Amino acid sequence: HLDLLVSDIDMPDMTGFQLLSWTREHPPNLPVVLMSARADEALGRTALAEGAVTLLSKPVGVARMKTVINSLFH
Questions:
Q1: How far apart are the C-alpha atoms of 16 and 14, rounded to whole Å?
Q2: Buried b / exposed e across 12-27, counting CB within 10 Å, b at 16+?
Q3: Alpha-carbon distance 16 to 5, whole Å?
Q4: From edge to edge, which strands make up the β-sheet containing 54-57?
Q5: What average pLDDT does this structure show over 16-20?
Q6: What are the C-alpha distances in Å from 34 to residues 20, 64, 72?
Q7: Cα(8)–Cα(1) distance, rounded to whole angstroms?
Q8: What is the per-residue pLDDT for 11?
Q9: pTM of the model
Q10: DSSP string spanning the chain?
């Protein structure tokens, strides 16, 4: 059982957006956090519009990841 999916947007065989779309079509509907080294406001808006919880700019610090996870599960 998974509680959270964290994925990069840029991957070799599919994009994080494609993975996000797949998770929306297949239960359970997991919260998805996307990450990208090219994160900006426009990409962040797209990620949220597609159903991601947030878009994190890489590199992601431990404190930032803890904040995101705590906001989802507390």
A1: 7
A2: eeeebbebbeebeeee
A3: 10
A4: 5-8, 32-36, 54-57
A5: 96
A6: 9, 13, 14
A7: 21
A8: 96
A9: 0.92
A10: --S-EEEESB-SSSBHHHHHHHHHHSSS---EEEEETT--HHHHHHHHHHT-SEEEESSPPHHHHHHHHHHHH-
